[in-house]
Backbone:
C-alpha cells in the first residue's frame, strides 16, 4: 500500500487496484447553512474532485470509503446538480463500496446513492471499517478521527493531514487510521490519546505524511 499523490488524503492499494478514502462528510456546508452559518455550498464538489484526481493519478478501478460519507442522513437530498452529477459519474465508472460510519444512515439507499453499502468489509485479510476496533488482531484500515500532524519549522507552525500507522506487536497485524478526505473536516492531533488507545495493542505508532514523492514518518508512541 502506498499513499497517493492527491494531497495525501487517500490510500492506493496497488494489489487490489483500489483507492481508499475516509470521512468525506459530503454536504457539510449545506448542513450548517440550515443553522445560519452561511458557508459556500461547494464542499462536495471539492471533495469529489479530490477523489477523482486520486483515481486519475492511480488508475484505481475500485473505491472503498471508510464511513461518515455524508455529514447527515439528509445530505444526499441536498446535493446540488453539479455535485450529484460528479458522484453519479464516479459510482457508475468504478466498483464503489460505501462503508458506513456514525454520521451515516445505515438503512436504505438515502445515504449511499450508487455503489454498495456495508457496515464493514474484509478484503484480502484486511478489515475496512469506520472506527478502529481496540484489540483487533487482523490488519485494519479505518477513519473517524481525522488525524493531523502539527510541526514547527523555522518558527512556522505547519498542520498537515496525515495517516496514523500502528506496527503490530507480534500478536496483531498492522493498522492504519486514514486522514479525512472531506473539504471541511478539520482534524484531531495525530498523537491524541484517543487515537493511540484505539490502535492498541501495538509495538509503535507513527504519523505518515507524503511529501515530494516520499513518505515521511514521525514517531508518536512506542511501547515501553
Residues:
Amino acid at each position: 500500500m502506498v499513499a497517493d499523490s492527491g494531497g495525501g488524503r487517500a490510500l492506493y492499494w496497488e494489489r487490489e487496484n483500489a483507492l481508499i478514502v475516509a470521512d468525506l462528510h459530503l454536504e457539510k456546508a449545506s448542513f450548517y447553512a440550515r443553522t445560519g452559518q452561511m458557508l459556500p455550498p461547494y464542499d462536495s464538489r471539492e471533495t469529489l474532485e479530490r477523489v477523482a484526481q486520486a483515481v486519475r493519478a492511480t488508475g484505481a478501478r475500485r473505491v472503498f470509503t471508510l464511513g461518515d460519507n455524508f455529514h447527515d442522513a439528509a445530505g444526499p437530498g441536498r446535493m446540488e446538480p453539479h455535485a450529484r452529477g460528479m458522484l453519479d459519474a464516479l459510482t457508475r465508472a468504478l466498483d464503489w463500496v460505501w462503508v458506513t460510519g456514525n454520521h451515516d444512515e445505515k438503512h436504505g439507499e438515502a445515504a449511499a446513492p450508487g455503489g454498495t453499502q456495508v457496515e464493514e468489509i474484509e478484503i484480502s485479510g484486511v478489515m475496512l471499517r469506520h472506527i478502529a476496533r481496540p484489540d483487533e488482531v487482523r490488519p485494519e484500515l479505518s477513519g473517524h478521527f481525522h488525524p493531523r500532524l502539527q510541526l514547527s519549522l523555522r518558527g512556522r507552525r505547519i498542520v498537515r493531514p496525515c495517516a496514523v500507522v500502528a506496527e503490530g506487536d507480534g500478536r496483531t497485524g498492522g493498522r492504519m487510521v486514514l486522514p479525512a478526505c472531506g473539504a471541511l473536516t478539520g482534524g484531531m492531533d495525530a498523537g491524541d490519546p484517543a487515537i493511540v488507545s484505539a490502535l492498541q495493542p501495538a509495538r509503535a505508532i507513527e504519523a505518515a505524511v507524503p511529501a515530494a514523492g516520499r513518505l515521511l514518518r514521525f514517531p508518536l508512541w512506542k511501547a515501553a
